[in-house]
Amino acid sequence: MLNKMTRKDLIDFEKKIAERFDNGEMPYLVHLSGGNEDHLIDIFKDINEGDYIFSTHRSHYHYLLCGGPPDELEDKILNGKSMFVFNRALNFFSSSIVAATPSIAAGVAWALKRKGSQKKVWCFIGDGAEEEGHFYEAVSYVHGWNLPCTFIIEDNDRSVSSSKKERRGEASDFAWPSCVRRYSYVPTYPHGGTGTSGWLKFKKEACLCEMPRKQSSELPHNLPSAPNLKYFDAVKKSMETIAKDCGAIFIGYNVKYGSAYGALKDIPESQRLETPLAENLMAGLAMGVSLEGYRPVLFFERHEFVLNAFDAIANTLDIIECISDGQFTMPVIIKAVAGGVKPFYAGLTHTRDMTDVFRSIVSFPVYEPKTAEEVLCAYELAKSAKTPVMVCEKKELY
Ligand SMILES: Cc1ncc(C[n+]2csc(CCOP(=O)(O)OP(=O)(O)O)c2C)c(N)n1
């Protein structure tokens, strides 16, 4: 058991926050916990030191129960971090994007299982998040591979204001597999704040966060020449170098069979993680394994398919270092091939080159190698980067 917070301690803490909110001290979106004290105290009896906890926009109780210091949490909340509570030492991670964490939790659980660790992963979500496809992707993966991860649905029959019936019709609760637990509770507070913010006069201006600085996507001009190397051979060679030097894990579908066009076929099988056809899950798995020290190479065979993963890429991967004040970093290498029109044409859904679109969204480098030398260089830079890097290969040049 991690902490000694009692039911009364939890309620008193949240009451104090509610009062400070009503006093106009925090011009920020705050989600208060309440009504679920007994359930959570019970659940946290099963959680051990070192376990990972993935929390939500409603993170206060989770943090206090896993040993987060109340004073530090209060300070975070006062400074606009109610939805951004992170603590690397406690393996505490939260997200204010509904259903963003289950796939990352699955990735951490995969890594823990591979290491034979005794640690477990606990991922809290609301009944609103339960409706997102991302949740289904992660649950089916954790269930199928029997990973040490438990999802807990905190069911308050509310998503902002609407009940489950208003959202889903008459359908009863979905029968999730055993890695999913549910508890039901009546929330003490409204969805956000205390219900007073419509008329509240705040005593200070909010301090706004800056987006991470955009990094250069330019490759150096004077590269060592490799005249006899073909583009595809440079890709294959780069993959093998990264596999050897970083022990990288190659994540994607059909990687088991050496996708794409055999570029991965000589990577040791133990370094290839075959995934379901679920791109957002793939990105989450990559982020999760990186938290346990693995170097992931996340493979997409067409640019169009990357779009399915862009929630994970833009809302977590790109900004995680910034929103966690540098506590969590995820140096994922994204290998994204822009489809070509030969040897056969697969139409507009499979052949667009979206390099510029990706560059316009993320702040990390998006390299676009057009020669074998540039491929070697792009992956060399990716290998040593401390941030995520995307390499947009051109199938046309394979
Ligand atoms: C992907 C995404 N969609 C919408 C929102 C806006 N939003 C924030 S919390 C929330 C309701 C979540 O309900 P639930 O998961 O049941 O959690 P609860 O607030 O009831 O604890 C919504 C719609 C969001 N943050 N992320």
Annotation keywords:
398 residues; alpha/beta; Rossmann fold; 5-stranded parallel β-sheet; 14 helices; 11 strands; 34% helix; elongated; binds thiamine diphosphate
Radius of gyration: 23 Å
What do the pLDDT scores average to?
A: 96
Q: Compute the number of helices.
A: 14
At the fold tier of CATH, the topology name of the largest domain is Rossmann fold
- Give me the count of strands: 11
Helix/strand order, N-terminal first: HHEHHEHEHEHEHEEHEHHHEHEHE
Q: What would the principal axes of the Cα set say about the shape?
A: elongated
CATH architectural grouping of the largest domain: 3-Layer(aba) Sandwich
- State the share of residues found in helices, binned by percent: 25-40%
Distance between the termini: 55 Å
